[in-house]
Structure formats: C-alpha cells, structure tokens
Amino acid sequence: MDTDTEKGSWWKTLPGVLSGVAAVIAALGGLIAVLSQSGFFDQKKVAAVAPVPSEAQAPPSAPAAAEAKRMDRPSEASAEQQLHLLAQANIRNSVGDATMRKWLADSNWYRQLARESLALVGNRRLIRDGADLDKVSFYYVESLGFKSENDLPADHAINRGKLTQAVVDAYNDSNGVSARSLQEILE
Question: Which of 4, 99, 132, 170 could form a disulfide with 136 if both were Cys (CB 3.0 to 4.6 A apart)?
Fold first, then answer.
C-alpha cells in the first residue's frame, strides 16, 4: 500500500482532470461566443429565414410558377440582395441603383424601410411601373409630420398602415393613377 501513497491516489488526480476538462469547455464556449458575435453563424441563417406575412395581406393570387421564381425574402439581406428583392417586387428607385445600394448599406432607415416594404408586398409585386422606395420614404415621413427621414427618432418602428398608404401614394405618383388601396396595385 505504500505504492498508492508514493504515486498518489486516483482520487487525488481527479480534481486535476476536472480542472483540465473545465478549462477546455470554457475555451470552447469563449470561441463560440466570439464567432457568434462576429456573425459567423448568422451567414447561414440568412438563407433560411422566411418572410413573415402581414396580418392584412391577402393570399397571393399570382400563378404558382411565377411565385416559384421569386426568392424568399430574408429579413436581413445585404444591400445588393435587398436591391434585387426590391426589383423583384417592382419597388424601384428614382436615385439610381448605385445610390440606393449605398443607402441600403449605410442607412438603418432604408434597410428597415426596404424590409418592411417587402414584407408588405409579400410574394406579390406591384403592377405597372411600380413605386420608388425613395418616394415611399418621402410619403411615409411626410405622413408623420417630419421633413426628412433624418428627423425620425432612432428607435422609430414603422407604422404598417402609414407605410401601406405611402406605398400607394408613391405608386400613384410614379404611374399617374389614383389607386386607393394596396390590393389595387398588386399582381
């Protein structure tokens, strides 16, 4: 039994083993936290996120083949992806794609407006020449009594009813018509 006391009992090494395992688990947890905060895992989620239909949205009436061509609209997309999704929904811009791409990349307001406008339209698209996102912004901001989107509070949540009317107003402006509801201007 003297050999046990000279080498040390297995029970005396257990705390050392547990400390080592705890250190490895802590290191892995730290690595996962850093990767998560850097957006490493979010890149895979973007493609899997489906749009949330609005409560007032009617079921799509477009043929299934046309809907199959459309991409799912992710909630967080790059400026290029958002520009592409907006074009699919026939939501254009009057400032040029390069300027709109920059706005979508640099402005939380335009990213939020694009995301909400796409959710409003759903898997449908505006008819005729569509509407311009920058005009939608103008009509929306004006409906709130502000002069520019820069005057909106930083935590502003878009009002779906006012956005719907802003899309209709921008559509009427672009097409010289007098539509009164979103359903009138969707295919």
Answer: 170
Residues whose CB falls within 8 Å of the CB of residue 85, separated by 6 or more in sequence, listed in order = 71, 73, 77, 114, 118
What letter represents residue 32's amino acid? I
Other beta carbons within 10 Å of 98: 9
Q: What angle do CA 99, 153, 57 make, to 5 degrees?
A: 75
- pLDDT tens by residue, 138-180: 999 999 999 989 888 888 899 999 999 999 999 999 999 999 9
Does position 1 have pLDDT exceeding 80, yes or no? no
First CA to last CA distance, the chain: 88
Residue 92's DSSP bridge partners are 132
CB atoms < 10 A from the CB of 66, how many?
A: 13
